[in-house]
Amino acid sequence: MLGAEDPESFFATAPPLRDADADAVRTKLQEFIARNSIISAGGVDRRPIVCVTSGGTTVPLEQRCIRYIDNFSSGHRGAASTEYILKAGYAVIFLHRRGSCQPYCRFLPDDSFLKFLDVNEESKVQVAESHQTTVKESIWHYCKAMEGGSLLKLQFTTIFEYLQLLRMVATSVSTVGQRGMFYLAAAVSDFYVPWDSMAKHKIQSAGGPLEMRLSQVPKMLSVLRDQWAPLAFCVSFKLETNSDILVQKANMALNKYKMNIVVANLLATYKDQVIIVTNGARNTVRTRNSDDDLEEQIIKLLAQKHSKYIC
Ligand code: PAZ
């Protein structure tokens, strides 16, 4: 019998995406991949396709969910990376947590977007003068990506949705072979409550302290590499809090899951520094000043390595 840690059993017991949602995603993916695979009469202008995963997955504790386990990921890395990947000429499937940071919206204040607006002499609401340039540029880039068909956004909240969508994206992207890339920056739960052993209703506090057993989420990186998209260029991320084990864990992921690259980062410094680990090499990438986006350098390096991989 297969356990909750087995990929097949995970998918067999996960609450399925609604049929209409799954069909709509499948259709969008097929259209997106076809659009970005066209070879024009004047030469090759098809784009390589990257699936960027971004933000954290939740682990529901009740089927009619009131409570869930979450993690700290804001989706900033995935959103910023998407901007630079698009700029480098790729098409991006942005698989992100609902409500997390979005490409071209990173500059928007958390509190409050009203700071960006003011009311003019005719009582009309407009973007404040101080933010006109940033907002105009962002709208321009966003519309170019959406209308030009190089950005497709898909949303998840739970670990169940995330892994089902990732499988759908990966099996679709496998059709473009080595032109496909996975950039797995999402913070994916390591532990979960299998759907069939989850409380159906709100867990009651009258019974005293709560004891709960979490199962391990199956290691889907090996399934991605071996079954879903064997030829794709795979970049996974490894976050640790202990610097003594970071590189060792990154090397383990590289070898065990046959990743092309592992981007290793520490919680204390992840915004300013990452280590790019490949077979036989280690490259530390740092921000040079406070206006610098670390993601710009990461993507430059990855694009070089990916184009070598394709040749
Ligand atoms: O989403 P964010 O910008 O707040 O954080 C990015 C990150 C630290 C989640 C990412 O760089 C990362 O390491 N993701 C993988 C985490 C993991 O080890 O599962």
Automatic annotation (TrEMBL):
Residues 168-299 form the DNA/pantothenate metabolism flavoprotein C-terminal domain. SUPFAM superfamilies: CoaB-like. GO terms for biological process: coenzyme A biosynthetic process. One of its GO terms (cellular component) is cytoplasm. It comes from the Eukaryota. InterPro entries: CoaB-like_sf, DNA/pantothenate-metab_flavo_C. GO terms for molecular function: phosphopantothenate--cysteine ligase activity. Transmembrane segments: none annotated. Belongs to the PPC synthetase family. PANTHER family: CORNICHON-RELATED. This is DNA/pantothenate metabolism flavoprotein C-terminal domain-containing protein. The gene is LOC123144636.
